[in-house]
Structure formats: C-alpha cells, structure tokens
Amino acid sequence: MSLDHLNSVPGVTAQPEAATSQFVFNHTMLRVKNIERSLDFYTRVLGFSLVEKRDFAEAQFSLYFLALVDKSTIPTDDKARTTWMKSMPGVLELTHNHGTENDADFAYHDGNSDPRGFGHICVSVPDIHAACERFETLGVDFQKRLTDGRMKSIAFIKDPDGYWVEIIQPDL
Amino acid sequence: MSLDHLNSVPGVTAQPEAATSQFVFNHTMLRVKNIERSLDFYTRVLGFSLVEKRDFAEAQFSLYFLALVDKSTIPTDDKARTTWMKSMPGVLELTHNHGTENDADFAYHDGNSDPRGFGHICVSVPDIHAACERFETLGVDFQKRLTDGRMKSIAFIKDPDGYWVEIIQPDL
C-alpha cells in the first residue's frame, strides 16, 4: 500500500501535531516469573544488554531494563545512562515480583489464549536461517519454525515465560 | 547501579555473542477492537505514522505497523519502506480482527488484572507536564496522573482498548 493510501486510512492523522515531534516509543513491559532465566534468555540468546535495574524492596519487586545495542555505546555514568536509556526506542522492561520463581504453580499469561490482548514482541535479524539454526542449537522453544504453516519467512520462539518472540529478516 | 554491577547480575551474559550483534528489537504487537479509534489515538494523540498495512481477507484480519518517526524519513517506495520498517527499533504493530468493533460485549485484556502478563508500553516525551496538559485537553483517559501516587515524574494514559501507555521524561 502506498504512503498516500496509508495517510488516508480512516482514523489516521497524516500530519502529526508539532507537540509530538520529539516523542519516542521507548519501551514495552512484561512481567516475568524467574528473572535469572529471563535475563539469560534475553542477554545470551537474543543479545540484549542489561542497562538499568531498580529495586523496590518494600513492595518486593524489581525492574530490569534491557536494550539491544552495541555495548560500546552504553554510557558508564549512571545518571547519563538512565537519561540515554529513557531517550531511545526499543527498550524491554522486565518486572520481577520477588518470590514468584519459587511457586511451582505460578505462571504469567502470554496473551495468546483467552483472554487475549498483547500478542508478541519481535526481533529482526540479518539472516533468519542462521538465527533459527542457532536457536535450535541453544535448545530454544519454538512456537512456529520457518517450515511450519504458510509463512515460511517468519518464525516464533518462546521466552522462559512463554511470551512469543517473532523473528523476521528485513529483506524477506 | 553501575554498569559493572549490571553485567554481573545473575543470569546476565555480559558480552553477547557476535551472532546477535545485528539483532534489533523491532516491534510489539497488540490486538485492538476498533482500528479506526486506535489509529486516531496513536497518530493524533501520540504522533505515530502508519508505515505499513497488510490485509488478510480470507482470515479476516489486518495488520497495521506504526512508527514514531520524522515523516520526512519514511521511504516512499513500498518495498524500501517495508525493509526500513523491519530494520528499526520501536515499531508498534496493531492487529485488527475484522468485526470486533461491532460487538458491544467484545473487549481485549490489558494484562494488568488476572491473568496478568504484559504490562504496558511507554512513550518518552521532552516535557511531561506539557504532554500531560495536552492529553487532558484532548480528553485522553488517565490511569495515573502525575499528581497521583508516590511517583510524581511518571504518568499512565490508556489507549482505546485500555492498554496502559506510560509517559516519561528522560531527564526526570
């Protein structure tokens, strides 16, 4: 669909107000049961860096902010790093309510069965076949392999809580 | 917390594998009941641009991809725009299952009551007081105003489906 058509889809404001010109879609927040498993998945399997952690001891939860960036671009100064992290798009926030990891019956809802809502996050990779072979080698759970279903150019893997992570390649 | 401490949090792989170096956290997908209302909210209130739409007539759903970018940077060529859109961080994908907007009883789940999981998305703004005053003027629903609760530097507004959108200012 052409850009002109996209700009005339019902509901669309084709020229946003100047007031929104510096707005940034900064992050998406997911609750996770076992933070150690989630940090392992997002940093080792997907390459995110942990760029900020905030602990709320009294309310018994912690927040973890992750970004998929070149490590050399992360500010070492704590205050500068916070401002930097809040200014960029593509941050993932994980919320860990302390102790959920010790409850065998505890599980979060991935949004893809009733009641539905949130669907998935997506990581774009330069070579989807190489990426999926690596995920297989690492023992990652798949929701949909490249060979499953009709759409052969996308895959879905699952994070430790079962949240779906779509894998795409930009030029496919 | 210092970067050294962040790199030694249990579960964290401090130096990601080279295989992930070009990975990009591309998008987050939310299902929406009434696409016209959602497009109005995300383009007019928050300044997103609709950069791609895909229709699946047989399966009766459509996908809408939105990005918070300078309009002048959006490629006009359709193929180039698709590749560009899949290469950047901070894209929002909205899924519309056709006809849900006509069912008065239909509603999606925002993830913040049981069963919980997904929590919110977040938009960073240069001046949070100006942004929140504008949201009030526009009649946007608030989950938490700046003056509510303990944290006076963040707000939460609600999109037409009730999904929470956190509003932050990087240097606050």
Automatic annotation (TrEMBL), chains A, B:
InterPro entries: Glyas_Bleomycin-R_OHBP_Dase (IPR029068), Glyas_Fos-R_dOase_dom (IPR004360), Glyoxalase_1 (IPR004361), Glyoxalase_1_CS (IPR018146), VOC_core (IPR037523). The active site is at E166 (proton donor/acceptor). One of its GO terms (molecular function) is lactoylglutathione lyase activity. It comes from the Bacteria. Its cofactor is Ni(2+); Zn(2+). Belongs to the glyoxalase I family. Its EC number is 4.4.1.5. Binds 1 nickel ion per subunit. Binds 1 zinc ion per subunit. In the homodimer, two zinc ions are bound between subunits. Residues 24-170 form the VOC domain. This is Lactoylglutathione lyase. PANTHER family: LACTOYLGLUTATHIONE LYASE, LACTOYLGLUTATHIONE LYASE GLYOXALASE I.
